[in-house]
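Preliminary data (for renewal application), zinc ion complex.
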Amino acid sequence: MLTCNFFGTTEIVIVQHTQCGMLSANAADLERRLRDKGIDTDNIALDPTLPEQTLASGAFSKWIGMMDDVDEACMRTVQAFKDHPLIPADTVVSGWIWEVETRRLRPPTFDAEKRARTDATAAQFGVAEKQPARWGA
Ligand SMILES: [Zn+2]
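Predicted structure:
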């Protein structure tokens, strides 16, 4: 936000990757495990230097950002940046997937054939439940 508005940045490139650990578990399970350790995820300091920054109750599992599909997450992140009021409308925003398996950078896609040899979804990591809805409708 600062660089786009004040330091001359005109382009943002978002790169996500296959085989990501953020695909490897369900966020609701991780939140439960933290609660089992006695951590109150509804009342936690996200940034100890900014205690007024808080999450709405029940938002923790969304906030930690686990994902079901790296391509979808990349596309939605690009759109969120494009729609964000603090990113100037003329900033170029693009998203890319680094395929760890092939050492190839490609655009995000839902085309199964184009990502057939990659671990791009949580299901490929054995995660059965869908992540808590992060992106809205
Ligand atoms: Zn990762």
